[in-house]
Amino acid sequence: MRVMSATGTSGAAAKGSEESGVPDTDVIIVGAGPTGLMLAAELRLAGVRPLVLERLPRPRDTPKAGGLGGQILELLRYRGLLERFEAACTDPVPAPRFPFGGVHVDLTQLSESPMHALPLPQQKLEHLLGERVDELGIGVRRGHEVLGVSQDACAVTAQVRGPDGEYRVSARYLVGCDGARSRVREMAGIAFPGTVYPEVNRLAQITVPDSVARLDNGDLEVPGFGTIRAGFTRTDRGLFGLGASPTSVSLSVYTIEDETAEYDDDIPMTVTELQDSIRRVLGADIPVAQTHRLSRFTFKAQQAERYRDGRILLAGDAAHLFPATGVAINAGMLDTVNLAWKLAGGIHGWAPDGLLDTYHDERHLAGARTMLHTRAQVALRRGHDPAAEALRALFQELLTDEPALQRMAALIAGADIRYQLPNPNDHALTGTFAPDLVLRTDDGTTSVAELMHTARPVLLDLADRGDLREAARDRRDRIDIRSAETDNRPADALLIRPDGHIAWAATIDEPADTAASGLRAALSSWFGAPE
User: Fold this and answer.
1) What is the pTM of this model?
2) Is residue 493 within 8 Å of residue 437, measured between CB atoms?
3) Other beta carbons less than 10 A from residue 74's beta carbon
4) Measured distance CA(26)–CA(22) in Å, rounded
5) DSSP character for 254?
6) What b/e sequence results for 241-272 when a residue is b if at least 16 CB atoms lie within 10 Å of its CB, and e otherwise?
7) Which residue, of 7, 114, 308, 369, has the fewest CB within 10 Å?
């Protein structure tokens, strides 16, 4: 990753750009975590010049998220990046069996599950995204803290403190990807209502010495204590979780306790802290030979009232915090894929009125959907009385039905999101993520995923509809027009946005007059008037 200093952007240079009225860059991104780096890459694909400002001088060493899962994996495949991310995984990909509110959702019985996970620690994820950003020629300034922001009708200006002192930098837009304690959100005056839960969660991947016996069923036999069962164990003092893969020498251990203490996320958890927590919750002393991951986190359920204030926007943890594990990075990176092309439309001058406002409308809806199932997890895991045990038992009984399990898998993955878009012909696909159809073209076989590698909108003609290709011809500068055949086509044509969601679909054999007028309306709504 390229690290830039303030040299050449402070002092006279910054003053000159302000006097000329020309912004220094197109978009300032505050924060170089997964959300900020993904946004930078998406903006560059859309022909926009981003600048990333990161407060910390180097990437964090403190372990945070332990993997990547959900709909973002499908999106990475649509960008042609998934194989690269999979190759960086050194641990085996786990079976699709996921913790959910103190119980497990077992998706192994589904023939095709929408929920998958990659065991890719956040440090590796940020390194991969950093490599991508560097390949695209994007500047990342580490050790540059945003002290203040101001905006007018034309630009937003950030007051920054860097290694060489303070300076100002301006852009058309600024996006706060600066995490749960977002200064950008605070400076923009955007409310962040919600609930803070009195829970401290500790998660570790460890190996144990030979004195601890690992049984074939996943249980542990601990000297001086006895058997610790695999899965979740509830006590009056909290929750203990134990998991192991037959192909891995490491164990996953997990505790939840109610505490009032405040913890600094920048101070890593120690082995002693983990063992003390296990002792309090379970009453057992588990010897530890080695640690591969130690992380601590608290749970909050908060969502920004609005994701946009003029030229300032929020994404990722700055916009939402969810009270469960495994969803934050998925939601944050998907925010950026929705936002980037809409910012590009404003910067390049073709965006129709209200396009950028749809970022809040769509992603606030998606955030609320994620909040729904993560708050449900709070209800499942925090109860300790017989009524709570009955709730968990009934929940797991319901998931023995395949339709319910399929629906739950899509909800957890974020794959069930259907944006509420104009849909004059009531097509079932409008607003959904485009299915990865196998396509036969004059140049050979391809797929929807391959068409989306460039992050450009695509009009996909599946029925040799020359009338529809002609209706889109005057927007060829911003839309790819492709013709193909596919088995059991779901529509005569699909208008696919850069984020992979379908903006419009023609029904099978839809008359030319309604199909062409519907397509023109969708093109104008999402990609502006022709030049």
Assistant:
1) 0.90
2) no
3) 18
4) 10
5) E
6) bbbbbeebebbbbbbbbeeeeeeeeeeebeee
7) 7
Let me know if 304 is exposed, middle or buried by CB neighbors in 10 A (0-12, 13-18, 19+).
Answer: buried
340 or 292, which is more confident: 340
Q: What are the tokens at 198?
A: 């009195």
Q: What is the pLDDT of residue 174?
A: 98
End-to-end CA, the chain: 37
- Sole residue written with tokens 């390049």: 348
Give CA–CA dist 118/95, Å, rounded.
10
**For residue 21, how far is the Cα from the chain centroid?**
35
Given a contact cutoff of 8 angstroms between Cβ atoms, the answer to whether 148 and 303 are in contact is no
Q: Are strands 165-176 and 312-314 parallel, antiparallel or unpaired?
A: parallel
**Two tokens at 23?**
């912004």
Q: Are 322 and 374 in contact (CB under 8 A)?
A: yes
Give the pLDDT of residue 2. Answer: 36
Residues in CB range of 216: below 8 A, 6 or more apart:
none
**Backbone phi, psi, residue 215, to 5°:** -85, 160
Residue 292 CB neighbour total at 10 angstroms: 17
Q: Give the length of the chain.
A: 531
Reading phi first (left if > 0) and then psi (alpha if -120 to 50, else beta), residue 295 is in beta
Token digits for 417?
Answer: 């999101």
364, 365, 367, 373: CA torsion to nearest 10: 160
CA atoms of 439 and 445, how far apart (whole Å)? 6
Name the helix (H) or strand (E) containing 12: helix 12-20
Record the tokens describing residue 80, joined without a space: 């042609």
Determine contact, residues 232/102, Cβ cutoff 8 Å.
Answer: yes
pLDDT in tens, 502-524: 999 999 999 999 999 999 999 99
Both structure tokens of 267 = 């101070």
pLDDT for the residue numbered 247: 64
Task: Report CA-CA distances (Å) from 62 to 202, 329, 339.
Answer: 13, 16, 29
